Amino acid sequence: MEALQILERVKSRFGDRVLEISEKKPDPFAVIEPGAIVEVGRFMNEDPELAMDCLSNESGVDYKDRIEVVYHLFSYTHRHGAVLKVKLPRDNPSVATLEGVWKSANWMEREIFDLLGVNFEGHSDLRRILMPEDWIGHPLRKDFVEPAEYHGISTVRESPIVRLDTKKK
Predict the structure, then answer these.
(1) Among 29, 55, 95, 123, which residue has the least CB neighbours within 10 Å?
(2) What span, in angstroms and rounded, lies between the C-alpha atoms of 136 and 3?
């Protein structure tokens, strides 16, 4: 099944909870109402015609006015895939976890939480995975300001471009 056929099947099942379907190449996608993502994910996993048995990637994107969580799904049985997105507010981005549908969501959601600050409701172990536990802020957000130091260690790095240019002279 082609990606757009998959997304239309989801739209026919969930109606207005599928907010948008984009035909953009190379990866058409559907924007799902955040409150429906678990139900949609479970349907896509359990429906025999879709059989999306793999959450191959889950990532977060900061667009200044919103945070998006992007889900890349794949069916090993049917060798087809689809992309879903949820749009969340910047001030308190929160969506239900999908680790009950796909176990691979666990670590990917921890990374998104750590770097973008998205709260995955119901997650079994939502804590930092890359940054230190006491790190303040989320470094992949566009509004993140890196502190000048962390525990007395400078975070300022000299630009290698400037250094290379001065050696040429």
Answers:
(1) 123
(2) 39
Report how far residue 93's alpha carbon sits from residue 104's, in angstroms, rounded to the nearest whole number. 21
Is omega for the bond preceding 139 within 30 degrees of 0, making it cis?
A: no
Q: Are strands 94-96 and 153-154 parallel, antiparallel or unpaired?
A: unpaired
149 strand-pairing partners: 154
Query: What's this model's pTM, rounded to 2 decimal places?
Result: 0.90
Two tokens, residue 79: 């060798």
pLDDT, tens only, 15-59: 999 999 999 888 999 999 999 999 999 999 999 999 999 999 999
Q: Is-contact 95 34, C-beta < 8 A?
A: yes
Helix extents (H) in the chain: 3-14, 37-46, 105-116, 160-168
Residue 141 burial by Cβ neighbours in a 10 Å radius (0-12, 13-18, 19+):
middle
Helix, strand, coil percentages (3-state) for the chain, rounded to 5, are 30, 25, 45
Which runs of consecutive H residues, i.e. helices, occur in 1-74?
A: 3-14, 37-46
